[in-house]
Amino acid sequence: MDVNLGRRWRGPIAMALRSVEAVAFLVFLVVGFSIFMAMGRSKTLNQIELNNHSGHCNFPAIFNFGDSNSDTGGKSAAYDRLPSPNGDTFFGKPSGRFCDGQLVIDFIAEKLGLPYLSGYLDSIGTNFRYGANFATAGSTIQPVDAKIFEMGFSPFSLDIQLFQFEQFKARTIELYKEGRSSYIESSFPRPVDFSKALYTLDIGQNDLHGGFVSMTEKQVLASTPNIINQSAEAVKKLYQLGARSFWIHNTGPIGCLPFAVIYYPPKPENMDQSGCVKSHNEVAKEFNRQLQERVTQLGAQLPDAILTYVDIFSAKYTLISEAKKLGFANPHGYCCGHLGDYNVDCGRKAMVNGTEIIGASCSNPSEYISWDGVHYSHAANKWIANQILNGNLSNPPIPITGACHKLGHS
């Protein structure tokens, strides 16, 4: 614009032009600023929403349901105690965990500032003030029948675990109604804690494993919708019992377990780039796809529920596919026990052709992803937990410390 224009022009026309120019410039500033702010909001919307929920939820308790991936002593208490070297790496003694140390559920408790969960079935030295663990090794989502039980799976399937929780809650509330005492208040959750607690589920692997033993892969796939339906009914039942915050793991790459590679040795056309049984992993992926779809549906059906779906498959598969880069040895190796020609569980003894075989541990468990051919090592569980607890593998992408909030709500 000519800076001398105002000097040369006089009268009403000049005044009008200057007014128009001033208004136009003001409009330019306002519109430009609005566009700039809108672009900024567009670029950072997801981050803003995540920041809105970055605060700690202060869960007063955790109630866990699952199988050996999260069993902190249930099966060991119900049957015979797991022997050393199980537990030795972290606890210095057997801890009821099918691992040399901590499980992912232990790292969840640590992240939330809570003590490790006691197994509901463990009557020795237990404390349920901050929750309880109903998981037992060998558990399935499907109710156990004679066929499944004879295959060696746990009688404490998910429906039984729900019955146990329902009784635990009812009797705990009864105790508080009968009269408070220092023992009750220090040993059991407060009645209000049940609706504020985090409910974690990590189960389904044994349903697939049992299917591979007794059915064709096509039959296992055909059975998946029914299994997912039963899992969804479990979530609904917990919701009816007052649960609101759920942290739900999908199932891991079962075809990558050393057990699977040894007992179902993949032919070249059925081996993926990481040396895993490709078809078994494809079944697991389909199971997970259906599970995620159902969790999304449940989120719409249960208006007050906060359901977080956790892609633990991706975390575990990344660890296996990048094992050497991450400091681990052969991803299909294992540290404790014997598989293959003769089976001796970790820490056990057996006579094989007149010779006593001991399921001893390797010298450095931290080098192994698999502890005993089926379960993950302490070092692997720690790495996996670090991948999932920050929310990077969750849907919605909320860290576990914010899993009491719905994305988009304060």
UniProtKB/TrEMBL annotation:
GO MF annotations, alphabetized: hydrolase activity, acting on ester bonds
Which keywords annotate this record? Glycoprotein, Hydrolase, Membrane, Signal, Transmembrane, Transmembrane helix
Q: Which InterPro entries does this entry report, sorted A to Z?
A: GDSL, SGNH_hydro_sf, SGNH_plant_lipase-like
Q: Which CDD domains match?
A: SGNH_plant_lipase_like (cd01837)
Q: Which residues are listed as membrane-spanning?
A: 20-39
What the entry lists under PANTHER family is as follows: GDSL ESTERASE_LIPASE, ZINC FINGER FYVE DOMAIN CONTAINING PROTEIN
User: According to its UniProt record, which protein family does this protein belong to?
Assistant: Belongs to the 'GDSL' lipolytic enzyme family.
> What is the protein name for this chain?
Uncharacterized protein
Please name the source species: Quercus lobata (Valley oak)
Originating gene: LOC115979010
